[in-house]
């Protein structure tokens, strides 16, 4: 055995000798980047005309099945704010032969999750299930889709939950800031500036929910999005079995108004006495998802406030220590959505922090250095694949494809397009959207401590609001 | 943590980390470097991404009274540069490579991770090895001051400017004996944060941030042999540190019921009932995780069904366990509807606890809860990043990175009588903390029940 021992020792020594102290004089170069190559997007229709979008992914034995509807909260009629949300919420409160408790028990026993919700422009029923339980999971999901009970008792129960939820927003500075901002930016005569309130919550009737369901759950308004451990052949029979009964039909939602742009610069200070921090929202109307300069704008925003090393975060958090974090973002809607810069800052530096936002806005109008441009492009482009790891993430991306009618090769060609963004495009985007003289400013904080500091900045007229000015009179429950 | 998750997301992540897999296979390689660093590698080529995850086996539990919040402040400082990484470059270089990164501090450990395209692995190894081996050479007092202010704002944003946030700050000294490692919060007090000096930071680093006190876990699109070579290269000049003294706390036992009432800027009163339960991965711990789910997971759970669905006296209710190395805590948290007193909530909660003490759950109920666990774990392991962290988690708490199936067994083995037995043993009436949070000026909404005499 001596020979073997010596041989082993020699191997060990040579292995150790190979490793040497690394060169730390500069960060190592990146290796060759691998492209994102997603599996094919398979599109087909069921016998009733319901569209299906499928991507196979066999890495784990799970399936995501989402029903996407192109009706959302912004389609709520005036006076019925929150209707889409509560109608979707009630889908799992009893359907077909199952009451609310039975339905929950059946879903959980499978180890499945079925969530229902509405967003601004769309609504979804999302089902995640082990593939071995797919048949039963789809049975429960389709029962919710086709035969929701909308029982009066459950409606009352959920209504109470929502009224109490409304009550708690009076203490939540982030919620208050968000509602104030939307209302002031868009105006109450648009759906974008309205939100569920005591009157609208008290007003939903069972007939409203039934009408919502009858109108919106038709093939022309829906798409089934499927990602996971299935094939077209294995899943189609189940989809036919459970969703062919979805009524054929089409709807047209009322056209959404085009938001009016901010003119001038006004500050709205919502008084929250004793607040440890001030919540700041600054912005204006941005642009729509279909804007041809979309990639330029995304990368411009990454530089300003779309990542940890962005200018806003570096300034407010790293350089000044005013905040735990600052950021900015564009909401890309079917119509022009908002551009918003945000932070929660220490109360006693609210004035200076607000000033720093405007210093960074002005800086964005100067020529943008190559290092900033490359970092912004690379963070967006080279990090893109990370958004496509789980079934849920991919299903979300496919929903975007459907909503905005993006081409099938959109994801696989995105990295190349993002890397092609140039200095000229990014600077043009900055000049168009970062307009320090025309911005809405909302601050929720302790007026007694912060008003003077804000006045000193001479940014514009300060309007003081109470929390009830923003949210309405506090419900008496 | 550098970028905050909401309290709910953090709680879900906490629970997810304790879950188990259904026949889950997570093949890995493990080896130790000459300087003591433990390394775990798991290959998953689903997408061209990789997660580099480093655990240092130090947390707020290693702090001393008067310097609370220190491990977390130190975590922040670790992102501010090292000898070969100028201040600000850590994040800039990673973003320029298409990576995002973060970290988190808890009582038992501090973790750091980068999610990257697989072609940037060397960059992450360069950065992690540089801050492990060469942090203090370039560390300036102004850096400590800057991060001190950031952490104070994190405390304001996460606790002080949030309804019910302050209550979480009050609980640790009520639950644990004086000087116990868990008797202060991870975020620390404002006074102690102000007192932390540049020298304190240097000492903390030298004492705790040694390769022998750490574990590197890499999961994703890697070549095992090439990755091992890269790690050996980048960590070659990181010196071995001194052995780290183990934390050795006295046993944590509650010997009485403590009742506390706090006023806060809230609309609805809330009750928090807290007990001490068995430490992570020890007998009784899995049972209590399942008790949490039985009590509040889903519409049919005991407390949700009674309080929120049937009686409609609570706006919400959460029951969950926070498992740690030396002890765990079990919480029942319920928010009252307007006009409902916390007496009513406490009474109903006690009734449900007593029911479980007397009779374990029915077979279908047990199976439902277990099925949810298994499925949840499958979902967890869709992500290479989660797997990387879980491997490090299992290694730290059990010594075995591939503890996935053993972990599952802990839950599968629990029977109905085990549940009632655990509830009798760990959710007693005479050893717990009951914290009530009421709107300012409304102390009459607090529970009126006096602490029991015996």
Helix content, binned percent of chain A = 40-55%
Regions with little confidence, pLDDT below 50 for 5+ residues of chain A: 1-11, 13-17
Kindly, what is the distance between the CA atoms of the first and last residues of chain A, rounded to a whole number of angstroms? Answer: 85 Å
> Spatial order of the strands in the main sheet of chain B?
1-2-6-3-5-4
Helical content of chain B stands at 40-55%
Instruction: Report the uncertain regions of chain B.
Output: 4-22
Average pLDDT confidence of chain B is 91
SS-derived structural category of chain A: alpha+beta
For the secondary structure, the number of strands of chain B is 11
The major β-sheet of chain B equals:
6 strands, mixed
Explain what you see.
The complex is a heterodimer of chains A (477) and B (454). By secondary structure, chain A is α+β, with helices and mostly antiparallel strands. Chain A has 18 helices and 14 strands. Mean pLDDT of chain A is 95; it is low at 1-11 and 13-17. Chain B has 454 residues and is α+β, with helices and mostly antiparallel strands. In chain B, the strands form 2 sheets. Chain B has a 6-stranded mixed sheet, sandwiched between helices. Chain B has a 5-stranded mixed sheet with strand order 7-11-8-10-9, with helices on both faces. In chain B, strand 9 and strand 10 form a beta hairpin.
């Amino acid at each position: 055995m001596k020979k073997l021992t010596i041989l082993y020792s020699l191997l060990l020594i040579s292995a150790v000798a190979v490793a040497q102290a690394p060169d730390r004089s500069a960060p190592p170069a990146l290796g060759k980047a691998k492209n994102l190559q997603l599996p094919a997007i398979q599109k087909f229709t069921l016998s009733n005309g319901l569209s299906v979008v499928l991507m196979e992914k066999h890495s784990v034995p799970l399936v995501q099945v989402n029903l996407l509807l192109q009706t959302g909260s912004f389609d709520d009629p005036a006076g019925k704010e929150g209707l889409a949300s509560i109608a979707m919420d009630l889908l799992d409160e009893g359907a077909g032969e199952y009451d609310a408790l039975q339905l929950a028990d059946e879903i959980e026993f499978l180890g499945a999750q079925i969530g229902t919700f509405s967003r601004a422009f769309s609504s979804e029923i999302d089902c995640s299930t082990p593939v071995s339980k797919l048949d039963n999971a789809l049975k429960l999901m389709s029962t919710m889709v086709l035969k929701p009970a909308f029982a009066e008792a459950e409606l009352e129960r959920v209504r109470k939950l929502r009224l109490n939820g409304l009550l708690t927003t009076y203490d939540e500075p982030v919620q208050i800031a968000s509602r104030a901002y939307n209302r002031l930016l868009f105006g109450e005569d648009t759906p974008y500036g309205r939100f569920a309130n005591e009157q609208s919550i008290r007003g939903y009737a069972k007939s409203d929910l039934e009408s919502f369901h009858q109108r919106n759950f038709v093939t022309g308004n829906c798409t089934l999005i499927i990602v996971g451990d299935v094939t077209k052949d294995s899943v189609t029979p189940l989809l036919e079995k459970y969703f062919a009964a979805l009524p054929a039909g089409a709807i047209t939602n009322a056209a959404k108004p085009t938001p009016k742009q901010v003119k001038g610069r006004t500050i709205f200070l919502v008084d929250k006495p004793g607040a440890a921090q001030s919540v700041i929202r600054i912005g204006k109307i941005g642009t729509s998802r279909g804007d041809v300069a979309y990639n330029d704008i995304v990368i411009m925003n990454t530089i300003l406030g779309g990542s940890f090393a962005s200018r806003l975060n570096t300034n407010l958090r790293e350089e000044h220590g005013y905040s735990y974090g600052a950021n900015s973002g564009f909401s890309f809607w079917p119509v022009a959505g908002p551009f918003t810069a945000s932070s929660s800052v220490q109360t006693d530096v609210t004035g200076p922090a607000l000033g720093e936002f405007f210093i960074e806005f002005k800086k964005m109008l100067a020529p943008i250095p190559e290092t900033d441009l490359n970092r912004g492009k690379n963070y967006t482009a080279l990090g893109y694949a990370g958004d496509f790891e789980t079934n849920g993430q991919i299903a979300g991306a496919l929903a975007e494809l459907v909503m905005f009618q993006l081409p099938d090769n959109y994801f696989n060609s995105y990295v190349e397009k993002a890397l092609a963004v140039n200095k000229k495009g990014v600077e043009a985007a900055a000049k168009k959207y970062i307009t320090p003289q025309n911005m809405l400013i909302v601050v929720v904080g302790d007026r007694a401590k912060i008003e003077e500091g804000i006045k000193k900045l001479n940014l514009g007229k300060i309007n003081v609001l109470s929390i009830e000015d923003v949210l309405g009179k506090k419900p008496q429950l | 943590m550098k970028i905050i998750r909401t309290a709910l997301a953090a709680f879900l992540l906490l629970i997810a980390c304790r879950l188990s897999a259904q026949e889950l296979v997570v093949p890995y390689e493990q080896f130790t470097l000459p300087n003591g660093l433990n390394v775990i590698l798991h290959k998953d080529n689903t997408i061209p991404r990789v997660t580099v995850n480093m655990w240092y086996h130090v947390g707020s539990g290693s702090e001393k009274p008067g310097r609370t919040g220190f491990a977390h402040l130190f975590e922040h400082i670790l992102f501010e540069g090292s000898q070969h990484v100028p201040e600000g470059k850590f994040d800039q270089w990673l973003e320029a490579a298409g990576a995002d990164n973060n970290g988190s501090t808890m009582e038992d450990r501090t973790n750091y991770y980068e999610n990257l395209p697989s072609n940037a692995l060397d960059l992450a190894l360069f950065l992690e090895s540089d801050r492990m081996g060469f942090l203090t050479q370039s560390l300036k007092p102004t850096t400590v001051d800057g991060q001190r202010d950031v952490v104070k704002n994190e405390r304001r944003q996460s606790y002080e400017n949030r309804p019910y946030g302050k209550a979480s700050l009050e609980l640790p000294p009520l639950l644990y004996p004086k000087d116990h490692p868990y008797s202060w919060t991870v975020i620390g007090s404002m006074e102690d944060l102000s007192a932390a000096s540049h020298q304190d930071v240097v000492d903390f680093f030298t004492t705790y941030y040694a390769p022998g006190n750490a574990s590197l876990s890499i999961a994703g699109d890697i070549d095992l042999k090439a990755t091992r070579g890269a790690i050996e290269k980048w960590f070659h000049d990181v010196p071995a540190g001194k052995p780290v003294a183990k934390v050795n706390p006295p046993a944590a036992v509650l010997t009485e019921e403590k009742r506390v009432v706090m006023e806060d800027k809230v609309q609805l009163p809330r009750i928090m009932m807290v007990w001490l339960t068995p430490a992570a991965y020890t007998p009784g711990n899995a049972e209590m995780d399942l008790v949490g789910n039985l009590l509040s997971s889903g519409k049919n759970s005991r407390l949700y069904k009674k309080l929120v669905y049937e009686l409609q006296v609570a706006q919400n209710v959460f029951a969950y366990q926070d498992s740690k190395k030396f002890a765990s805590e079990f919480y029942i948290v319920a928010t009252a509807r307007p006009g409902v007193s916390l007496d009513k909530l406490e009474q109903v909660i006690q009734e449900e606890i007593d029911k479980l003490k007397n009779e374990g759950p029915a077979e279908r109920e047990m199976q439902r809860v277990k099925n949810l666990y298994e499925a949840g774990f499958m979902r967890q392991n869709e992500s290479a990043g989660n797997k990387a962290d879980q491997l490090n988690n299992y290694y730290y708490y059990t010594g075995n990175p591939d503890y996935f199936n053993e972990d599952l067994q802990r839950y599968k083995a629990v029977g109905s009588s085990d549940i009632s037995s655990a509830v009798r043993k760990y959710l007693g009436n005479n050893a717990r903390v009951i914290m009530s949070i009421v709107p300012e000026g409304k102390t009459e909404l607090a529970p009126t029940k006096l602490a029991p005499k015996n």
